Structures are given as structure tokens and as C-alpha cells.
Amino acid sequence: MARIATFSPASIDSLRQGRLEDPRTPGLMIEVLPSGGKVRKYERRRAGNGALVRRTLGRFPTHRMSDAREWAAALNDQVETGIDPREVRRAEKAAERAREARASRAKKPNKPRTIKGKLGIYTRDIVPTQAQRCIYAMKSSGGYGRYPPIAPRTAARVVSSLLLGGGD
């Protein structure tokens, strides 16, 4: 009868080649690299199509045993429901890249000179004809007839920048 190796620090330290699987967490193992270093890995077949899912957590002493088991348990939950953890990770990375791209393209705050110019246009051209109306009622979606006889585009830009705090 074959003896089942325990997944203890002593058994991991004595491991010189091959791999040692964690009996408490399916798919979690420690594998010895050709260089002699040890790395924590996850390997399991996905429910549904049986595709092999392999992930690497990192070098052996870097992460605690409990952290590695939590990591593998989260992967097991996905694998057992038929979700590919690699696809989930790709989607998370794509969402993060999109979020960073949007953040880098975000409108910078207007400089004091720009704000002064827009307030000048507003007080000089819009207020005399539209003073009785609420500024929030002045929207470009309602047509350009709402704006004073200055360039409708300029009026729309000024009002939107004052309402939203941004604009051109």
C-alpha cells in the first residue's frame, strides 16, 4: 500500500523532484523546477468540456499555505461551475485597461483663464436674453432657439461647461 505524503512544511522541504499535491485542496500542488526551486501551481480539469486549467501562484515560500488554499479554492469554485478562470482573468485585465484608458483621456480641469472667458461669454451674451430662465433649463437638446442670437454652438458649450464643470 502506497503511503500518502502529507502537505506539511517538512515534506515540502524534503521534496527534491516531481510534485506534491495538497490532499485538502484539489488541484493545488507544489512542483520542483529543474533549478531546484519550488513553485505553487494549480492544475485541474474544467467541468463541462474537460479542458485543463493550469495556473501558477508563485514561488513556494512567498505565500502562506492558507493563502494558497484560498486562491485554489476560488479557482475550484470557478472550475466546478464550468467557468474558465483564465477567461475571467482576461476579462478583468481588459476591463482594467479600458478603465485606465478612460481615466487617461479624462478632461483636465479648466484653467482660470478659460473659466474667466466662459463666464464672460455667459454674462455678456447669455444672461441679458435668458436671465429669467433657470440655467438648468437651457439645454442644447431642446433646439438652438432657446439660446440668444450668438453662435448656438458657443452658447451650448458655455452652458454645458458651467453646468458640468468641464467642457471645452
UniProtKB/TrEMBL annotation:
List, as start-end ranges, the regions of compositional bias called Basic and acidic residues.
88-103
- Domain of life, per lineage: Bacteria
Q: Where is the composition biased (Basic residues)?
A: 104-116
Q: What Gene3D superfamilies has UniProt attached to this entry?
A: Integrase, DNA-binding domain
Q: What name does the UniProt record give this protein?
A: DUF4102 domain-containing protein
Signal peptide start and end residues: none
Integrase DNA-binding domain sequence ranges: 25-92
**Which residue stretches belong to region Disordered?**
88-116
Its organism's taxonomic lineage begins at: Bacteria, Pseudomonadati, Pseudomonadota, Alphaproteobacteria, Sphingomonadales
Pfam families given in the database record: Arm-DNA-bind_3 (PF13356)
Instruction: Note the InterPro entries from the entry.
Output: Integrase_DNA-bd_sf, Integrase_DNA_bind_dom
